[in-house]
Amino acid sequence: MTVVHGIPKQSQYDVSSVLSYVRQIVDDVRRRGDTALIEYTKKFDGVDIDSVELGSDAKIKCLEGLDNEVKNAIDTVYELLTKFYEEFKPRDFQVELGGVKLGIMWKPIGSVGIYVPGGRKPYPSTLLMAGVPAQVAKVHRIYVASPPNKIGCVDPAIIYVSQLINAQSIYRVGGAQIIAAMAYGTETVKKVDKIVGPGNIYVQAAKIIVRDVVGIDGVEGPTELVIIADESADPNQVALDMMAQSEHGLESPIVLITTSQKLALAVENLIKDSKGTFYIHVVESLEEALAIANELAPEHLSLHINEAYKVLSSIDNAGAISAGTSPPALIDYIGPNHILPTNRWSRVRGALTVYDFLKPIAILFDDKNIDKKILRAAETLARYEGFDFHAKSIVMRHV
Ligand SMILES: NC(=O)c1ccc[n+]([C@@H]2O[C@H](COP(=O)([O-])OP(=O)(O)OC[C@H]3O[C@@H](n4cnc5c(N)ncnc54)[C@H](O)[C@@H]3O)[C@@H](O)[C@H]2O)c1
Ligand SMILES: N[C@H](CO)Cc1c[nH]c[nH+]1
Ligand SMILES: [Zn+2]
């Protein structure tokens, strides 16, 4: 265990540090297609696969033995998330302003590749978090990719969720290599319009590299947690929340910022035998804690403070906030979503939602009764920009 007294200086696991290494993998997959995918799977995952896609017989075989209790748990979360995203889905919108109708029509993205992490542990919950909003958005074709387990299967629970979300194919390949394949296409892997999903730094670096040809959702690398706690916090709960997110690996910074020296000592004592990269920082005030958290812009932010709801409006940057009696681990399994920005990306984006699978198409129609003032404004701006035909085209129907 490492406990640092202070806050993390900068991400030790910066995605940009592996960009040139990952670019070689991406270029190789682009050149050599399926052959490269099979070779990298042997090299990085230590597994021999004879095909990239899981065929229907393999799917049945790999699904065998999946516990009914796990299936029921998946069904329960699937239902909850479906209801949530149906409620949250934006509606088409139209308004008449200044004599014209302006509107937004939401359309689903044609095809999406969902990366489901699986290097160290399988993450069927991640497929629920991406697959459900994609399905609610009515994405036409969903493809799922995840590293193979030791017997060359994809984890059975991931296959089960793939069926619920009507995925077209499941690719048993992980890492940067499958991101490249979904961006450029190979003999087997379909080129998609957008790639979403979390994963280690190689996966996230690959997404950054291919984003000139494919849409991406953002950077969702190794899990991060910042807890703000005051003297009212229960050290056992704080320590457990810290140990929970540290289960994702040593790359995950787990930070406690507290106004209580007593709590800091108690928590340090409780976590001292667990594996993780922990930071504990004592501050003078809650305001100071909030300022640091906003600067860190963490993935998960957890508030172990009195009347937590009162400070919600002071939080500007966080992927997800858990407060009151809710632990971050509950967000991981029931949502609203655990696919969250890391590496300070919560400064500019939040959780994955149904919006990631939709595009707003702007619509203007029926300008017959447009206000003269608005018409002139458009004409004037067109002429100012030196676009005379734009100006003529705008006014010709109104002379
Ligand atoms: N931010 C989020 O929203 C979020 C959500 C869930 C999980 N996560 C994170 O996802 C991560 C999952 O990581 P993981 O590694 O277990 O699974 P992973 O599926 O992301 O990565 C495994 C793949 O990485 C590739 N790889 C491994 N070592 C390599 C190397 N040296 N060079 C090139 N490629 C290599 C392999 O192909 C392997 O299949 C964890 O850090 C977890 O915290 C983040
Ligand atoms: N905490 C992870 C997001 O950083 C999500 C997760 C999935 N399963 C367990 N945890
Ligand atoms: Zn987690």
From TrEMBL:
Binding, substrate: T223, Q245, H248, H300, D332, E385, H390
Q: Which cofactor does it need?
A: Zn(2+)
Enzyme Commission (EC) number: 1.1.1.23
What residues sit in the active site? E299 (proton acceptor), H300 (proton acceptor)
GO MF terms here are:
histidinol dehydrogenase activity; metal ion binding
Into which family does the record put it? Belongs to the histidinol dehydrogenase family.
Put simply, this protein is called Histidinol dehydrogenase
Q: Which organism is it from?
A: Ignisphaera cupida
